[in-house]
Amino acid sequence: MPLTTTGELVTAARAADQGVAAFNVITLEHAEAVAAGAEAAGAPAILQISENAVRFHGGRLMPLAAATAAVAHASSAQLSLHLDHVVSPELLRSAHGLGFSSVMFDASKLPYAENVKATAEAVRWAHEHAIWIEAELGRVGGKEGEAPLDAHAPGVRTDPDEAVAYVTDTGVDALAVAVGSSHAMTERTAALDHELIGRLRSAVAVPLVLHGSSGVPDGELRQAVAAGMVKINVGTALNTAFTGAVRAHLDANPAVVDPRKYLAPGRDEMAATVRRFLEVVGG
Fold first, then answer.
1. Residue 272 Cα to chain centre, angstroms
2. I want to staple 136 with a disulfide (CB 3.0 to 4.6 A). Which of 127, 176, 208, 237 is the partner?
3. Which sign, positive or negative, has the C-alpha torsion 257, 34, 86, 179?
4. CA-to-CA distance for 14 and 32, rounded, in angstroms?
5. What's the pLDDT at 255?
6. Residue among 185, 231, 190 nearest 208 (CA)
7. Are 164 and 172 in contact (CB under 8 A)?
8. pLDDT digits 0-9 by tens, 3-34
9. End-to-end Cα distance, the chain
10. Catalytic residue set
11. Distance CA 60, CA 63 (A)
């Protein structure tokens, strides 16, 4: 099926009071698992490639983007291609022409005024090229290379009044907010601030995005969608599923050297994880 756009998927999910899940792609097996899981769930999904993943592939976006787009084209599911957590303006601009309909431009580590300035410039460029832009306000900690961040610390969570000003001044199409989750969680123990999610939903006109959803239990995710979260980002949960299956296969079959033998169960476990998340946030 041809690539759809992230904006279309998010708009449709929001209108239906549902969520749409976005899954981070690191390898071809990740992309294949997202497509298979979406087909099994009968649900749309977003394939997203982060700046960290691009760095892992030698700083070259095009090969991974082309492979991921090819998987989407071969799938019967509605899938879009999203460039995630982009800090580099050069990488942002490289999204044009590679199938990406959306980018998350991340200036969240900058002081507020600098965040607004950098994001507004990114939005101007993106909208000139028909690219939908997501940005982050508040601090969703846990990204690679960061010191641990307490998701409940004062000043970390997104302030609704500041969010209104930020959306107005930057022109972003979606806003990632800090409401109690954290990136790279391998245990599903995060407790979200659902009252804050509701206040943010009422305050800003654009869809809300939840980062760090791998660490959020199913019930919390359902409540978050009901309270107003729309785009639900999942990354670590796929890696946990993949690594667990690969490790189990190699432990049981120590003589195996053909990577297909252990990549297949890893891919299958990721696909099952994708299906579960899609059923939770879209049901």
1. 18
2. 176
3. negative
4. 26
5. 96
6. 231
7. no
8. 999 999 999 999 999 999 999 999 999 999 99
9. 23
10. 84
11. 7
Please write the tens of the pLDDT for every residue from 216-247.
888 999 999 999 999 999 999 999 999 999 99
Which conformational region is residue 141 in: left (phi greater than 0), alpha (psi within -120 to 50 degrees), or beta? beta
Instruction: Report d(CA 144, CA 77) in Å as an integer.
Output: 31
pLDDT surpassing 90 at residue 150? no
- Structural domains of the chain sorted by starting position, each given as residue range(s) with its CATH number in brackets: 6-282 (3.20.20.70)
What gap in Å lies between CA 204 and CA 48, rounded to an integer?
24
Query: Residues 214, 185: contact at Cβ < 8 Å?
Result: yes
3-state secondary structure at position 132: strand
CB atoms within 10 A of CB 217: 15
Among candidate residues 208, 283, 276, 211, the one with its CA nearest the CA of residue 238? 276
